[in-house]
UniProtKB/TrEMBL annotation:
It comes from Glaciihabitans arcticus. It holds the Pfam family AHSA1. It comes from the Bacteria. Residues 20-153 form the Activator of Hsp90 ATPase homologue 1/2-like C-terminal domain. This is SRPBCC domain-containing protein. Belongs to the AHA1 family.
Length: 158
């Protein structure tokens, strides 16, 4: 696949991460509601499967709501697919209401590339632009989410 990732700026989150699972399985955990619900969101949240709707086509939606475990508050994300190249690339535009006091996110771009390494998958995630505070919270949220995903894949291997 040709590298289509645009330049990373200081207002973007850029993460490269490997998972102990084949690319097709990692893809499913991003594109199927029952799998996405099992890992998406920072440690202090859950993403109930009933809040997730995915229409996996360009122009389709990837919508969900994270629930704050302490308060029960919901933080919805309304997302539109721009580009889909199964199972190697997703690009989305996110619009969401106030995200835990950090303000509304509008026209936020999320790009995820899934690199095939046999029994492992490396992803590159590029998301932005953010304010400094939003950037830090988003990076932390992704890292916490990926720890959950690692645990799921570790359990599947045992």
């Amino acid at each position: 696949m040709t590298d289509i990732t645009p330049e990373v700026t200081d207002r973007d989150v850029y993460i490269t991460r490997s998972f102990n699972a084949p690319r097709e399985l990692v893809w499913k955990f991003w594109t199927q509601p029952e799998h996405l619900a099992s890992w998406f969101g920072p440690t202090e949240t859950t993403t109930p499967v009933e809040t997730i709707s995915i229409s996996l086509e360009e122009g389709g939606s990837w919508n969900l709501a994270m629930r704050d475990n302490a308060t029960g508050d919901l933080y919805p994300m309304n997302t539109r697919f721009v580009t889909i190249r199964e199972p190697e690339y997703l690009e989305m535009i996110i619009d969401s209401a106030d995200t835990n006091g950090l303000g509304t996110l509008e026209r936020l771009r999320l790009r995820v590339t899934f690199h095939d390494h046999g029994d492992k998958t490396r992803i590159t995630l590029h998301q932005g632009p953010f304010t400094d505070e939003q950037k830090q919270q988003t990076a932390t949220g992704w890292e916490q989410s990926f720890v959950k995903l690692d645990a799921i894949f570790a359990g599947a291997a045992s």
